[in-house]
Records
---
Amino acid sequence: YPIPNRKILLQENPMFFFPAPSVATQESWSWEQYLKEQNAIAAPVELFSKDQSFPEHENGFQVGMRLEGIDPRHPSVFCVLSVAEVCGYRLRLHFDGYLSCYDFWTNAGSPDIHPVGWCEKTKHELHIPKGYRKDKFVWMDYLKACKLQNAPKKLFRNRSSNGPVPKEFQVGMKLEAVDRKNPSLVCVATIADIVDDRLRVHFDNWDDSYDYWCDVNSPYVQPVGWCQENGRTLIAPQGYPDPENFSWPEYLQTTQTNAVPAKVFKMRLPHGFLPNMKLEVVDKRNPRLIRVATIIEVDDQRVKVHFDGWDHKYDYWQEADSPDIHPIGWCDVTGHPLEVPHPNDVKILPGQAVCPTPGCRGIGHIRGPRYSGHHSAFGCPYSDMNLKKEATLHDRLREQTQAHLEADSSHSKLKNLYSLNFNGKHETVNSQPRHVQQAKCLKIKGKEDIDLDNLFREYSAEQNQQALHQSVFLTSMSAHPSRELPLGREQHCKLLPGVADIQASQVARWTVDQVAEFVQSLLGCEEHAKCFKKEQIDGKAFLLLTQTDIVRVMKIKLGPALKIYNSILMFRNSQDLTEEDTVTGQDVTE
Ligand SMILES: [Zn+2]
């Protein structure tokens, strides 16, 4: 064991960690009484799917058991997983050979997990633990050598209520699908895989991280021609030569593919959730916790969730079919702790270190389950400084070279299904990791350097302006406005030379004149410098600007606004890195 940094030892080591006093009233808290007090109603059990509702079986998994399952960040990737923790009907799963910060929680009945040997049987590629050679990995040898146990088949009680996918749905067929991370966009898509009653939807010529699994009745998948019939804009595949005049018949012909027959689509009924209904929801910021929550808004496919007793800044949209929402009483029935709304008068013992975030009991850590708790804003998943970090953490494969994935032969074999280029020839799919959705409707061609400005100028002239606008601003209107850069950091460094070297701490000291000077230095933004001066924006204010501020309030056009906003994101990100380096620079060995 290397000796951990002393500060971490004192602050974050589980041995020294005591959570803030558990709410004294927690034991006596009851849904019945709470609903009465709040004059609220519970979301009716009938609205929940089998994956969300009360399980029919016990959770038989045990810590240490090995299995195969989908990486939630990369839905096309099946991995070697182990059970790291069992809580009620839930499991914390760990990627063998990787740090525990990539662990994730799932339900024991999740259709995403399979017994050892499943991949081989169903001809799916298994991503083996880091450090093993692909051609040398044999499950049974691995289990034997490491004295490990595989999770018995009988524990995988995946629901199969919908029956198998109708045979009209076949791998390789085309359809129109909603981009789940960006629901205003409907894009050209392919069925990339079929397992039991679910499809994996892949967006043509985009990387697999945008894929998702859904059942055939999902409102996210629609037949070819649906957009045209419903007056929606269909987003053409990346690189399609004339995206405004995308033609399905032509595309099907050049790619030599078929559309899923329209008549086999049966859309399920609307979700039925309504505002003010109460439920139990996994807190995505601290996914070991399930909280008392209220639906405060709904749209066609989603519900906006508020955690009772918490500030509204923590509200977020959740898909109505997410396996992380449950009817009231779910925790009780499955033996999972339920985080109830905290009273205002939590008593803190003298000298006790307590997380400063209201409502937070110091459970969990922004760096994942490596630490069981935290005492300060640095580790708190709810502190302002960490709210914007969510997306930059916990992507296992992003930190490896993308080449690792690309080098896998069977992976690329699958890819070839939809990587036919528009002359009908095979072409290497652009493997640039695209960190954010908005890039999806921009035509980013391979590794060419295209000036951001040109991209946006080109687009703003087009019909798709609305879609682009929505896609670019969707994140700013959703829960986490400032979390990501629309393109990879490397790309930004090239597009915004000079910006990468400036630290947020420097920017924070800028005067109004210095801010204006900086804006003036950005190509294409010269004329907007005076606007910043007029609004008296100094360095600190500059760092806090949102996309909405820049476009709506300052009335700056989309192209320059994005350039300015991206610079701000770059500055903010540089600060993140510095903080992380100094605070948790040293890894604690598990
Ligand atoms: Zn906290």
---
Amino acid sequence: MNKLYYAPGACSIGIHVLLEEIGKPYDAEAVDLRSPPPERAFTAINPKSKVPTLKRDDGSVLTEFPAIAYWLAVTNPAAKLLPEGAEAQARALEAMDYVVATMHMQGFGRMFRPGNFAPSEAYHDAVKARGKQIFENGLKVMDGALAGKDYVTGTFSVADAALFYVEFWAAARMGMTLPPNCAAHYARMKARPAVAAVLKQEGFDA
Ligand SMILES: N[C@@H](CCC(=O)N[C@@H](CS)C(=O)NCC(=O)O)C(=O)O
């Protein structure tokens, strides 16, 4: 059985949603990210000490959100986690990469861990402000991508699971107002039984 290592409310929530959408049994173990990586037992499983981490049936470990999402999609075709056709699939991967690499790592990364970008505290407010700018611009880009559509590529895909986790951070954790198409997408995602189940499992109100 696949086993997801996650932290409640972390980016791993997107992979948790995909596992629920697939509907096959899986294990999930919460990891405490508060201690420094060398002190985490979990570091022995994933030397990067990051969630999401997926330990698969054969014991091998897969890391990085886009790689896990892609692998789950191609190994579970019945769940239709990728749209049909090369163009739509490329668009799903494009959106997922933008969410993870830019909105999360460059945007939220600056807001939550300014010390990773500038050792001197004197620059931390400026780093956080730049992170917020990157994140808000990301929301604008994704709002445009959603225009006239229920999901990023029209039908639900891995891209929506990625977009959901940054929408969740923005709306539920930071109290930000989402632009209209993202707000509708976030509501639509929360109405999916898989998303409601994951929010409950991770200890959040749906
Ligand atoms: N590039 C990684 C990012 C994963 C990541 O940054 N995860 C965060 C939680 S949202 C984490 O595990 N942080 C723990 C730490 O930095 O010590 C991915 O795509 O999976």
---
Amino acid sequence: MSVLPKKGFIEKFAENIGVIPRLDNENSKIEPIKDPGDLSNYPPPEQWDNWVEYEATKWSRKKERHYTIVPTSCFNCESGCGLLSYIDKETGEVRKFEGNPYHPASRGRNCAKGPATINQINDPDRILYPMRRVGKRGEGQWERVTWDVVLDEIAAKIRKAIEEGRNNEISYHVGRPGHEGFMDRVLQAWGIDGHNSHTNVCSSGARTGFALWDGSDRKMPDFANAEFILMISAHLESGHYFNPHAQRIIESKNSGTKIAVMDIRLSNTASRADHWMATYPGTEAAVLLAIAKVILDEGLYNEAFLRDWINWDVWLEADHPETERTFENFILKIREEYAEYTPEFAEQESGTDAQVIVDVARQVGRAGSRLSTINWRSASSGNLGGWQIARCLQFLNVLTGSIGTKGGSLPSSWNKYSPKMPNPPPAQKYWNELHFPKEYPLAHFEMSFLLPHFLKEGRGKLDVYFTRVFNPVWTFPDGFSWIEVLRDPEKIGIHAALTPTWNETAYFADYVLPMGHASERHDIISYETHAGKWIAFRQPVLREAARRRGEQVEYTYESNPGEVWEEDEFWIELSWRIDPDGSLGIRDYFVSPYRPGEKMSIDEYYQYIFERVPGLPEIAEKEGMSPLDYMRRFGAFEMEEEVFELYKNVLSEQQLSGSMVDEKSGLVTKDGTAIGIMINGKARTGFDSPSRKQEFFSQTLVDWKWPEHRLPGYIRSHIHSEQMENAKGEFPLVPTFRLPTLIHSRSGNAKWLAEISNRNPLWMHTSDADRFCFKNDDLIRVNTEIGFFIAKVWVTESMRPGVVACSHHIGRWRRPQDPEANRWATNSVEILEVESGKWKMNVLDGINAFDGEDADMSRIFWRDGGVHQNITHAVHPDPISGMHCWHQKVRLEKAHPGDRYGDLFVDTKKSFQVYKDWLESSRPAPGPGGLRRPLWFKRPLKPVLEKFYLK
Ligand code: SF4
């Protein structure tokens, strides 16, 4: 299936007057726009201390408003786009947020979520003070306490656990990360293996597929310079690094770059594509391998890159020992290997027209080193074996030699800066099996979504559990299993939720600790948004405004609304209180680098880091500033404009000193570690894989008991069409797409965002709706393995037939006993445990207008609170990547009498059984030499080496 966009009157008119390039001109290619545009639209920095605008609400009187403009970085997704906060000099309030034109990634532009930060900070329902539970967990009773009380109580628990050697009972579980290494420092200073994340419900699938090639688990597509862009899913509108990527994709398209998109929906992204390939979910790898086959058969591959930079000789030796190891034989054998992946086979699997696959393949081949591809979450997160989809996608970059090139796909580490911090602590001497269990030795990140089941099985307990901007009850699958363990003090001793907003997980905490939004906290941000390298500063803007006025602020909560704090200062304070006399050695890591023996201040921490950012001290000096002041003033610094082909760097004499070269493989090693590879007589850096090459053949997968997946391949998903009985109403449900104006669970208090996006109906193609006699807004019961949810049908042609889809990010709830929060977006519900493990959620009321501090509250016009689908999903751990495979096999039926929109039911005994069933397909450690995990694999918070070995 392929859809080429049809030109309408407006496009034709725009083409004719030259506003846009000719859309059907295959050869049109003008240089991409580099400059973000006319910066005169933005206030010039020399006027940021006193920027004058007329008051918008009193425009006819031309009343002047005087602002101090302070830059910060958005916190509403990982991109960290630049924001300028406009602080009214008269009232001291932030009036609005706009883009920061000096931010190298966002270049003054933001998505809707950036400026909506103003809603979040002004939300009358927000948490302003630390709260402590009263009564039983989850009963909904809270009392306000001081930060001192919170710090002392939690510190005492942690200290006791460490003194008693129960280090593995302390855990920090992060939802939205983004304070660049700070937390790793804290956890290692405490000597605990306490990092848990959300990554295995997010991006681990794709990360695994990419990392198997070259050790780099994230790729940075240089969209701006691409000739052809291939995207899996709706990346342009809602993908990772959303706004920085989207603006470059569109600029590239406007310069003539062609785009192909695999997506079951005619999303905004697919509608901007030249080829919409509505592949059946989970069959993307079959299509990608068919594209690879065309490239191989038609000689469109980059021979020079393949000869030098993939481990073809190792593969021939392993799989074809009888064949002479020549490049020509490799090409013969690889063509034989993929002979079955004909375009016709791919069409049969995916439903995408074979001719379209051939057309796309030829354009991919012709783009050569300027092929940009992206698969962040999407298909790799939805399917059993989804990691192979990302691996097959990178296969196309490898075949075309578009790895590390201008317009190609770059290892993310080239474009991301890792700050140098003061006095780093050593690796911890613990391995926490609640995070990295033996069954999943290749799991790319922690098996976070299995934590409730591990606790139920008695694999361990948590004495102190921090959640940080993290809401697993709502965002993770199987939320009722989370509720069951969160409410049980035998499994979780104390739970402190560090969060800017009330959420479904915080309702079951002991402490709810208000943390700042984008303009209320310190962080460092550096991401692979484009071919350059940059660093940005997130800062509490009212604190900075106070500093500019000459006022002293010791702690950030003094300048924030209420007593809203930030994590950085909280962790420093907590660490000192865990170790008040220094006897645990923890305090040493939180001592000032400038004032021996004194507690490190937040300014000193960032001063130390910025003084060490290459190039920053020099540029700051030219402005007559310290590096810290430069970042406070401009908010961002571009370290390098472009970074390409680093793998070809020749090792210096100093690097080579004391090294050895393996005759057969050409591997250059030093002190037992590979540092490079000999290519045509030169020692080059290469990639971060064991062979320092792109690993087409994975010895790691052979060694770790998965030899059948040693090459890029196609794994049939758990929701493959063979698993579906259509006549019984069975469908694959795609729950992984999102609306670009929403934040996972932090848009409930952003009124503009709730106004834009406030429903999540079940997308259904017209033909399916006709077959089952559904029409728009009909209530539908969606039966999962462990329960059901009641949704509304949306009948549309913009959808692949035979598949249904429902967006996440909507379906928020609160119970009558919970604080009145997020009322722009929460249903009021009752939760009943009808018998042990059987949970019913009934919607009592949807969204309503109400009288409140904000006049807009009485203007709420939407009533649809959506449905919380994730809580009805069982866990599906992929046995290799550890990724939760989000897609669901569901059975659709008309709603039953009494069913209300948003109602749902879950049986957690069934969900535990599904967990056990999937666990059976794992192939546990040890691997070679008794290892728990390949040493070359990344792991958050790496422990000491000996902990990698099972006793
Ligand atoms: S893409 Fe949008 S939400 Fe994400 S950081 Fe940028 S402005 Fe904020």
---
Amino acid sequence: MEGPGRALILGIETSCDETAAALVTDDGEIRANVVSSQADLHARYGGVVPEVASRRHLELVAPVVREALGEADATLDDVDRIAVTQGPGLIGALLVGLSAAKAIAWSRRLPLVPVDHLRGHVASLYLRPDPLEPPFLCLLASGGHTLLLDVRGYDDEHVLGTTLDDAAGEAFDKGARLLGLGYPGGRELDRLAREGDPAAYDFPVARVPGLDFSFSGLKTALLYATRDLSPEQLQARRADLAASYQRAIVRALVARVREAAEQSGARRVAVVGGVAANSELRASLPDAALAPLPLCTDNAAMIASAARFAHRLSYPAYLGLDAYASR
Ligand SMILES: Nc1ncnc2c1ncn2[C@@H]1O[C@H](COP(=O)(O)OP(=O)(O)OP(=O)(O)O)[C@@H](O)[C@H]1O
Ligand SMILES: [Mg+2]
């Protein structure tokens, strides 16, 4: 392994309920990628509690950075810049990561690169061993966003479509909740769906104009299908409900991706974000470039990756930097 001397980017991500740190080389090799999820902490509330998340980030951010350095067999002497998620996300959670990044950068007089979380998701495709190069059409489907992006360059993307209500990941999570699968439920729903019949229920997906998405009606349809079932009946139909519900979400996503590819003439299609981990979605887009599984949900390797193509702020220009909750 080539050690010190090769510049490392330290990435920090705290926009939601994952405290994450990673070390990535300038040419996109991941040297360490540590993600500490708070999911268990929030599960009993059925969603992320912002204040609880901020406090936990505060406890975890230093140990997670230390762990990443240890995993990469590096010290801060090997780090040449700090990358950090500036937004969008939970403002208190973001501020913990941003303050930690500023403190580390300031103490070493290193440059800091503020990164947009959504650009970070796209940049999960730019890492080795199989980096993708723009241009491409990108579906970003996560817990908070569903976007169709025309990615023209590393720092140049245009929104072709977005959700008018719930995000795809949110639809998975709300569906999982109705099926008693806990939080966050996308992965569990994916697992349960494998045992069910996707044709058992016909869940409608709203057709909205243009290249936008709408998932809120689907969740209501699932609610109607489940609310009159006894607990025993629900148990017996759960896998079929999960499979049919997942099929409806995946079909809606895939249909829009195909339409957008046709309209824009894109030759390459890519999928990123937590929902990109979905097995049915992955199987439905066999020719697409898919974010590697460990890089679908939030992580800091993608943030460090995005920083490779973004403007760096030198000391002390970044000290006044603020986080932003939405784009
Ligand atoms: N296998 C899966 N199938 C479907 N959904 C999944 C799967 N794995 C994870 N998810 C969903 O992905 C979402 C989390 O993704 P991610 O971490 O990218 O979102 P986020 O960071 O909370 O939102 P954003 O990036 O928009 O701020 C959750 O909604 C989760 O249920
Ligand atoms: Mg995310």
